[in-house]
Design brief:
- The chain is an alpha/beta fold and 239 residues long.
- It has 2 domains: 63 residues, 60s Ribosomal Protein L30, Chain: A, CATH 3.30.1330; 161 residues, SPOUT methyltransferase, trefoil knot domain (Alpha/beta knot).
- Helices cover 36% and strands 19% of the residues.
- It has 10 helices and 9 strands.
- The strands form 2 sheets. The protein has a 6-stranded parallel β-sheet with strand order 6-5-4-8-7-9, with helices on both faces. A 3-stranded mixed β-sheet has the order 2-1-3.
- The longest helix has 18 residues.
- It is elongated.
- The two termini are 38 Å apart.
């Protein structure tokens, strides 16, 4: 909620806060809403329980617009040009998608590409699991992920697919270059055409007991490696 009020990606039109004394987080929301000129209401907890799905509201309910998605051409043509993108190939679980989006925002990704079909929508569960990070991300929804990856490659960005059995990420690719990390959905991983469009495929080594990581966890580990390499050597803008 705080992130939605701070960001311009989604306009909050009305906020209802529980009646009575406010906790510090709710007081911050009240202050942010007042500064933004958002309509404020105080309501009994029973009314918030009715308004919020499953009664999960923590003392606040808001009404607003859905996140504004970004056009891929606009993202690729931005100045400075994007140096780190994440593409998620049909991640269907909202919890996984939200966690992956939080990692993308936390590690400074310039944008996230999602297919319109076969992917979880960026709804309330995803926003909640991302803990508001989605409000600060440029998210692109595309009809055809394969075509989107072709555009990414044409823009001079290396496409790196993550697969469990592939060689270690940090051994096979210089992540200080402009790069798009591509991760597959739960269970099936990268689809065939997505895999074929990757310039290189790399993995995250695991112990024998566990063969692979959850897609959201793998996304966080891979993004950390990008950050680690770039702290040692600045990103190569002309690559």
């Amino acid at each position: 909620m705080e992130e939605a009020l701070r960001a311009a990606s989604r306009r909050v039109s009305r906020v209802a806060l529980v009646e009575g004394a406010l906790s510090p987080p709710l007081a911050r929301i009240l202050d942010l809403a007042e500064r933004a000129g958002v309509r404020l209401e105080r309501r009994p907890k029973s009314e918030l329980d009715r308004l919020a799905p499953g009664g999960r509201h923590q003392g606040v309910v808001a009404w607003g617009e859905e996140p504004r998605f970004v056009d891929l051409d606009a993202l690729l043509g931005a100045q400075p040009p994007p140096s780190l993108l994440v593409a998620l190939d049909q991640v269907t679980d909202p919890g996984n998608l939200g966690a992956a989006l939080r990692s993308a925002a936390g590690f400074g990704a310039d944008g996230v590409i999602l297919p319109e079909r076969g992917s979880a929508g960026v709804g309330e569960t995803v926003r909640r699991r991302s803990a508001g990070a989605v409000e600060h991300l440029r998210v692109v929804r595309v009809v055809n992920l394969a075509q989107a990856l072709r555009q990414v490659k044409e823009a001079g960005i290396w496409v790196v697919g993550l697969e469990p059995a592939a060689p270690p990420l940090w051994e096979v690719f210089d992540l200080t270059q402009r790069v798009a990390l591509v991760l597959g959905g739960e269970g099936r991983g990268l689809r065939r055409l997505t895999r074929e469009l990757c310039d290189v495929r790399a993995g995250i080594p695991m112990g024998e007991a566990i063969g692979s990581l959850n897609v959201a966890v793998a996304c966080g580990v891979a993004l950390y490696e990008v950050t680690r390499q770039r702290r040692v050597k600045p990103v190569a803008s002309g690559s």
